Amino acid sequence: MFDIKALRENFDATKKALSKRGKDFELERFESLDRRRREIIAESEQMKAKQNAASKQIPMLKKEGADTTAIMAEMKDLAETIKKLEPQVREIDEELETFLMSIPNIPHETVPEGRDENDNVEMRRVGTPPTFDFEPQAHWDLGEALGIFDPATAVKITGSRFVMLRGAGARMERALASFMLDRHTAHGYEEINPPVIAHRRSMEGAGQLPDKEGQLFHLSDTDYFLIPSSETPLTNIHREEILDASRFPIKYCAFTQNFRAEAGAAGRDTRGLIRMHQFPKVEIFKLAHPEDSYAELEKLTADAEDILQKLGLPYRVVNLCGGDLGFANSKTYDLEVWLPSYNRYVEISSCSCYETFQARRAGIRYRDSAGKAVFAHTLNGSGLAVNRTIAAIWENYQQADGSIKIPEALVPYMGGITELAKK
Fold this sequence. Notes:
The chain has two domains: about 5-100, Orthogonal Bundle (Helix Hairpins); about 115-420, Bira Bifunctional Protein, Domain 2 (BirA Bifunctional Protein, domain 2, 2-Layer Sandwich), CATH 3.30.930. About 40% of the residues lie in helices and about 20% in strands. It contains twelve helices and 15 strands. The strands form four sheets. The protein has an eight-stranded mixed beta sheet. A three-stranded mixed beta sheet has the order 5-11-12. Helix 3 (about 30-65) runs antiparallel to helix 4 (about 70-100) and helix 7 packs across helix 12 (about 385-395). It is elongated and about 110 Å long.
């Protein structure tokens, strides 16, 4: 939920900050609604004050033998008018809530200006993309040739933008998930195995609704959705709770299958493992004190980078510009891994700080030094997207004969297998 206080007390500054996103959010509508609300409440309060004064005056008039018919009739009219004003305030409150739910988070001051991904700012590159003395293959061709990637059967079972891994390919998904979870739990994250179905309240709490209404799998005739990320259940673990600040940062990680109905345009992304309707992902999540949240973002990003470094995959880190920033995000670092078939870096993780945006929607608070309940800051990131990691390993570790070396760190999780080769 957008902070209504920021709009009421710092309207011009808030409007300017949101302009970094490159869109007009019609904030004047808020001003109009809020002004009308205050006018109605002021009018109602004046009438109630008049009622209170009359309630003291009437007994005195009766005691003096005066005729109170007129004043009693006036009070009856006032009561009817006040009764009519109350639903008007409720209606405006509902409009304000709907409006505030549609306003994205304010970008942090360190978010660069820009309209789209072309304006994102590269922060660093780690590792060197491989060079080949042969024509490298795309991961979908490598996988099919090795019999470990079977999109045709997945299409037969379900439809387009679903895939099936077989044999060592399926084992690699399991191995990577275990490897990632082991790394993150070693860094102090508590492993969670959450539900992959969430109700509307949880989706709203994490900021997926109403923003992504058309991109989610909605279970018909229910108010349930398949989660687009384990960010949804992790965010809602402490919904409507007041936490002990001494526990911060609270750190969770989870491996789940995730589901997105809108998976981008047709083309290269849908041929392999990059953009599917169902995809496995390890997520890392934090609840933090507002003073520490951006330091925690750097640490969370480093934890996601650790996976890429241990796997020896070349990648870069970019700071997303205002126009490319997610709806709920205040600041985001994208980790992009090198994919030879694309001849460029491709997103494999987004690490974000949401400040109080999600906590305000989900009611996640802690007590400050004065004992006041205030909203916490939330952070999350992919640590990592498993299918994209598989694609990156297959393409970067491919050999001239079509076999694929397994990164040394992953070998123990693959039962000692050091390469994927044709049987």
